[in-house]
Amino acid sequence: MIRKEIRRIKFSGKNLNDVFALPCVEKIQKCGNRPKLIMNRSMVNNVFNVALLGDELVEYSDGKWDIQYGERDE
What is the pTM of this model? Predict the structure, then answer.
């Protein structure tokens, strides 16, 4: 089965309500003065299940999500 991209959402920090409403997001935590997303491991294809500001969450037709990591300025 070929996975097709359904939607892509960039985690900007200004869209906390939108990303928290996603089924793949388990919780939002503060990391220093920035938020980070803790993803539901059973729904994420990545080895790591933490998304930081600038990362994109991508949903596929098989119901799984990927975290595409953005540039980090830490």
Answer: 0.87
